[in-house]
């Protein structure tokens, strides 16, 4: 789901700033719907648990948070996979029960082995979304074996553990099939949001008028009017922030939703293909609008801006009706028709702006018209760094990258340490520390530190709310209906927070976990303060153990994946320039935006690493500037590729060479000279990052300066790497 816009602010206790948290708590389309569905699943799960008197209602209700996805298809698939997987694991646990039930040493050994295997799968296989949860439930099931006196009771207890997943899975499937939005609906909603943001930034702080110029296909939507709301100065700033957030996200989850929509087979394949083209066209529209409104000396008459905004503002209504706009025109004579209105600006479209308008017209004219397949496709761009493989259960580096084994060892070690501690202390009330270790473990140190503040904050808020509910609310709750109401309200608030994107979702997850553990103590209303106290202490202890383990033992820096990602980004931009046809170029542009969003997120996360692990500020500044240049290049390259194709051949070659030089400059073992020889000899002197050559066109001028600056940055990195090699070379 698309989170609300927000700027990156200073960290608060190594977490997101208050302004960012406030922005990510703001409403957006679909957020309330998601939270209500999640709250309903939790409340109904509580009802089923009360009816069948199964243990651990809090954990059973919390599983719904792990199963819940924005669309019904992903939610149902995740639920089915989780149910099948837990059934297999419970079968394994039943086989182990006979051997380990009366032998604590073998029980701990079995817990450790099963935990290691599943956490390894969570890091190195396609089971990543669910393997951690399965490890949690399996370890807890084996823990319960030590508290039962006989084999029959142990078997019954393990079957109850199966219900921890079986109950919320069944409820989730039913609720999502009945109330869940289709993935196509979410894709249409996301595209409409991006188009509205583009329209708003074009006219801010002016007034939007009546939408024209688009026909509806697949829905009865004609004569749609724009909102007509006046944008104040504050609204103009908000519009720009929202637009930049859309630009930063790129295609977001739209391609995944469309793929799921195709798998559902609830929409014609033609419609899915049309919406896929609409997603690519929207990236082009955003890039062109950004180029025209970036304030880089490019002016566009107010009348033309309003006309473009009116056209863009009418398209979301068509998408909202379940269709997609076609035959969208932005004719040249319409620009002339508003020329009288633009006289007051005393400026017709400048040559650069006119070129941009030509690209915008082409993107609108084929907005939802899938391109015909190319008869002999050329080699495409290299795969995105970190992209998921198309086949195979395990990742390509599953058995060669030690990071996967380290992750499994750290997670299992932290969980087993908590288990041994509360056994030695004879304090079973803090068993939530064992569960917490599986919930909060992450792959890199930066992610662990960033999320740790959200976890502690969420635990504090959830525990305080849970204790307050026990003191002031639960004594008056005398029926299961009242308990369902309490769970519904808590899950509604937590679900609202969890829907705000990965930078704040952990706050909602931890809030729900802490509250449910305090309030849902049994099959009916209860208000034992000791249970709430012990479970809260367990959560905090588990969080602390994970924080220490993941920052001190085999810490994984996020910096290791930044340089390869930037290199791949340059390859993709070069492929964008080299693409012979506009549809292919637009598809690559969407990939560039997705890769750029991943690089920017990693650069943001790098600041949360401990000083002993975090790269130097100059290193981060260099990479941040390197990543920003492809972003500024995308608009001019898209605009000029059709207008001046001959002049862009050299640009593609320069970008490919820069990608290879960047790889050589960032090699840690001093092989820069070898790589340079393998990639075409010594590096030519970089062009100065000054004014473009005399006589260069407007688009060429907008491209030459960033590329020259990119060459200078890569040259500086090469010099820096060479100096490091010289400094550490033996005398």
Percent in strands:
under 5%
Number of strands: 2
Helix content: 55-70%
Q: Count the helices. How many? A: 27
Q: What best-fitting shape do the alpha-carbon axes yield?
A: globular
| Rg estimate, integer Å | 28 Å
Order of helices and strands: HHHHHHHHEHHHHEHHHHHHHHHHHHHHH
- The overall pLDDT average reads 76
Tell me the structural class.
mainly alpha
Uncertain residue segments: 1-15, 206-213, 218-231, 333-347, 376-389, 669-696, 724-731
Largest sheet: 2 strands, antiparallel
- Distance between the amino and carboxyl termini: 57 Å
Q: Largest beta sheet: what is the strand line-up?
A: 1-2
Secondary-structure topology with pairs:
Elements: H1 18-24, H2 31-52, H3 57-67, H4 72-100, H5 104-124, H6 128-145, H7 151-179, H8 183-203, E1 215-217, H9 233-249, H10 254-264, H11 269-293, H12 302-320, E2 324-326, H13 332-337, H14 339-342, H15 351-365, H16 402-424, H17 432-440, H18 445-473, H19 480-498, H20 505-519, H21 529-552, H22 562-578, H23 582-606, H24 617-640, H25 649-665, H26 672-678, H27 698-728
Antiparallel strand pairs: 1-2
């Amino acid at each position: 789901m698309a989170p609300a816009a927000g700027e990156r602010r200073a960290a608060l206790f190594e977490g997101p700033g208050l302004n960012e948290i406030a922005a990510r708590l703001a409403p957006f389309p679909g957020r309330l719907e998601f939270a209500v569905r999640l709250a309903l699943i939790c409340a109904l799960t509580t009802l089923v648990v009360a009816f069948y008197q199964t243990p651990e209602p809090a954990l059973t209700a919390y599983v719904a948070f792990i199963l819940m996805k924005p669309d019904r298809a992903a939610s149902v698939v995740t639920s089915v996979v989780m149910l099948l997987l837990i059934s297999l694991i419970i079968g394994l646990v039943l086989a182990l029960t006979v051997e380990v039930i009366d032998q604590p040493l073998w029980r701990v050994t079995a817990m450790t082995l099963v935990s290691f295997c599943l956490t390894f799968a969570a890091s190195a296989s396609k089971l990543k979304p669910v393997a951690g949860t399965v490890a949690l439930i399996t370890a807890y099931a084996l823990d319960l074996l030590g508290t039962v006196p006989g084999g029959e009771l142990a078997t019954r207890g393990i079957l109850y553990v199966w219900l921890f997943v079986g109950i919320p899975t069944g409820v989730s499937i039913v609720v999502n099939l009945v109330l869940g939005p289709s993935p196509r609906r979410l894709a249409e909603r996301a595209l409409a949001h991006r188009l509205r943001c583009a329209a708003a930034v074009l006219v801010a702080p002016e007034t939007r008028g009546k939408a024209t110029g688009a026909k509806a296909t697949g829905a009865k939507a004609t004569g749609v009017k724009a909102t007509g709301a006046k944008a104040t100065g504050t609204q103009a700033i908000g519009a720009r922030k929202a637009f930049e957030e859309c630009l930063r996200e790129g295609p977001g989850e739209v391609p995944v939703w469309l793929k799921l929509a195709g798998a559902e087979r609830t929409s014609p394949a033609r419609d899915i293909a049309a919406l896929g083209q609409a997603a690519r066209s929207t990236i082009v529209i955003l890039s062109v609008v950004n180029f025209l409104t970036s304030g880089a000396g490019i002016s566009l008459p107010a009348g033309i801006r309003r006309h473009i905004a009116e056209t863009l503002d009418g398209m979301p209504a068509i998408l909202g009706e379940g269709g997609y706009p076609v035959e969208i025109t932005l004719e040249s004579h319409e620009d002339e028709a508003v020329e009288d209105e633009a006289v007051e600006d005393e400026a017709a479209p400048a040559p650069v702006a006119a070129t941009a308008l030509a690209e915008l017209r082409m993107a609108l004219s084929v907005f939802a018209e899938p391109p015909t397949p190319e008869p002999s496709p050329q080699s495409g761009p290299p795969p995105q760094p970190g992209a998921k493989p198309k086949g195979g259960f395990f990742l390509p580096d599953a058995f060669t990258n030690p990071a996967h084994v380290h992750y499994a060892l750290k997670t299992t070690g932290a969980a087993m340490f908590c288990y041994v501690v509360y056994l030695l202390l004879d304090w079973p009330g803090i068993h939530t520390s064992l569960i917490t270790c599986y919930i909060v473990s992450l792959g890199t140190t930066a992610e662990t530190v960033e999320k740790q503040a959200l976890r502690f904050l969420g635990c504090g808020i959830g525990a305080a709310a849970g204790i307050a509910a026990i003191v002031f609310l639960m004594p008056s709750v005398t029926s299961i209906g009242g308990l369902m109401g309490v769970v519904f309200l808590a899950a509604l608030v937590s679900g609202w927070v969890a829907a705000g994107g990965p930078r704040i979702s952990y706050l909602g997850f931890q809030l729900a976990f802490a509250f449910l553990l305090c309030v849902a103590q049994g099959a009916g209303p209860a208000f034992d303060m000791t249970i709430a106290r012990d479970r809260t202490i367990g959560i905090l202890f588990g969080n602390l153990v994970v924080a220490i383990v993941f920052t001190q033992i085999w810490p994984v820096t996020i910096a290791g994946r930044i340089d390869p990602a930037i290199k791949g980004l340059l390859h993709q931009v070069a492929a964008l320039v080299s693409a012979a046809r506009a549809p292919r170029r637009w598809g690559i542009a969407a990939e560039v935006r997705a890769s750029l969003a991943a690089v920017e997120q990693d650069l943001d996360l790098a600041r949360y690493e401990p000083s002993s692990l975090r790269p130097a500020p100059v290193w981060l500044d260099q990479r941040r500037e390197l990543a920003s240049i492809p972003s500024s290049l995308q608009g001019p390259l898209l605009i000029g590729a059709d207008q001046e194709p001959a002049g862009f051949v050299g640009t593609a070659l320069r970008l490919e060479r820069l990608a290879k030089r960047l790889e050589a400059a960032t090699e840690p073992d001093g092989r820069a000279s070898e790589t340079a020889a393998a990639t075409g000899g010594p590096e030519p002197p970089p062009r100065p990052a000054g004014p473009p050559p005399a006589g260069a066109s407007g688009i060429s001028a907008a491209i030459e300066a960033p590329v020259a600056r990119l060459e200078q940055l890569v040259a500086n990195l090469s010099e820096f790497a060479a100096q490091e090699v010289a400094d550490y070379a033996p005398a």
